[in-house]
Design brief:
The structure is a single chain. By secondary structure, the protein is of the alpha/beta class. A hairpin with a 4-residue loop joins strand 5 and strand 6. Helix 1 packs parallel to helix 7 and helix 5 runs parallel beside helix 6. The protein starts with a strand and ends with a helix.
């Protein structure tokens, strides 16, 4: 039986693994279906992590050194997709993987993070992956020297618009309001970029195209409908937490959740189920920042250490 199972390999999961193993736990496994790093590896630029050696580097480069450090004290990486977490009659936990394999653990830290939210306009799903994207660093190169659109008004949308302006001939930044949630310094950088055109108080009515992919967007603007002929649009309209593995066979969740689907935790990342902890984007009121997720992971690991010691 595992002392601790960590579900998710982003900043929260990696940090949890580092603190748990360095704290003395010998049998700690991090379940992650791919390479460790998390969603932040798709970010084009990080410049707000304290102590960062190279501000402005990509999320992929930033996270590339984490696994070597976090695994130094014995953290193991189990490649696989977790399907469900349940609690056993003896208060231990079962981690069921896709394919049927089941692992047992005394405690679990869930760090499954979040995924980009769909914007909901007509044609979005039809052209997703064929002109509609949620990752500028993944797909921006395909639109080199072409015009593209970005949808959103937060830090991610503005940062990715700036990134795309280095690749594309023009970037149309579409936002449903006049005001923006992005940091003023980031917004000013975008406004000073001559390749970025702001289209505010506007929404995407429809994405249209053909068998080859996206051809353009129909916008609703204060001046009426506008046709934007672009082969690509990048949407950054928020995140949905990945809480599916906590859902039980009866449709209820293993632990208490908020109305928005986040896990309820206290300041020590405890859920209402003893031995079950949540960290990072998944937990309630998460700021959705790398530094916060890493801190959550550390706190959760320290709490897990105390919990497991109490069992002896």
């Amino acid at each position: 039986m595992l002392d601790l199972a960590i579900i998710g390999g982003g900043p929260a999961g990696l940090s949890a693994g580092l603190y748990a193993t360095r704290g003395g736990l010998k049998n700690v496994v991090m379940f992650e279906q791919g390479e460790p790093g998390g969603q932040i590896t798709g970010s084009s630029e990080i410049e707000n992590y304290p102590g960062q050696k190279n501000p402005g580097e990509s999320g992929f480069d930033f996270m590339s050194t984490w696994w070597a450090q976090c695994s130094h004290f014995g953290l193991e990486h189990k490649w696989g997709t977790v399907e469900q977490i349940t609690q056993n009659p003896d208060k231990t936990f079962s981690i069921k993987l896709v394919g049927g394999e089941i692992s047992q653990a005394k405690a679990v830290i869930v760090c499954t993070g979040s995924v980009p939210r769909r914007a909901g306009f007509e044609g979005e799903n039809k052209y997703f992956g064929r002109g509609v994207s949620t990752c500028a660093t993944c797909d921006g190169f395909f639109y080199k020297n072409k015009e593209v659109a970005v949808l959103g008004g937060g830090d991610t949308a503005i940062e990715e618009a700036i990134y795309l302006a280095n690749i594309c001939s023009k970037v149309y930044l579409i936002h449903r309001r006049e005001g923006f949630r992005a940091a003023p310094v980031t917004l000013e950088k975008a406004r000073n970029n001559e390749k970025i055109e702001f289209i505010t108080s506007a929404t995407i009515k429809e994405a249209y195209g053909d068998n080859s992919g996206l051809n353009g967007l129909k916008l609703n603007t204060p001046n009426g409908e506008r046709d934007l002929v672009v082969p690509g649009v990048f949407t950054f309209v928020g995140l949905d937490v990945r809480n599916e593995i906590l859902k039980q066979d009866d449709g209820k969740f293993l632990c208490d959740m908020t109305d928005g689907g986040q896990v309820k935790v206290d300041l020590k990342m405890n859920t209402n189920v003893a031995g079950l902890f949540a960290a990072g984007d998944l937990r309630q009121d998460a700021p959705k920042q790398v530094v916060s997720a890493a801190a959550d992971g550390a706190v959760a690991a320290l709490s897990a250490l105390s919990y497991i010691e109490s069992l002896h």
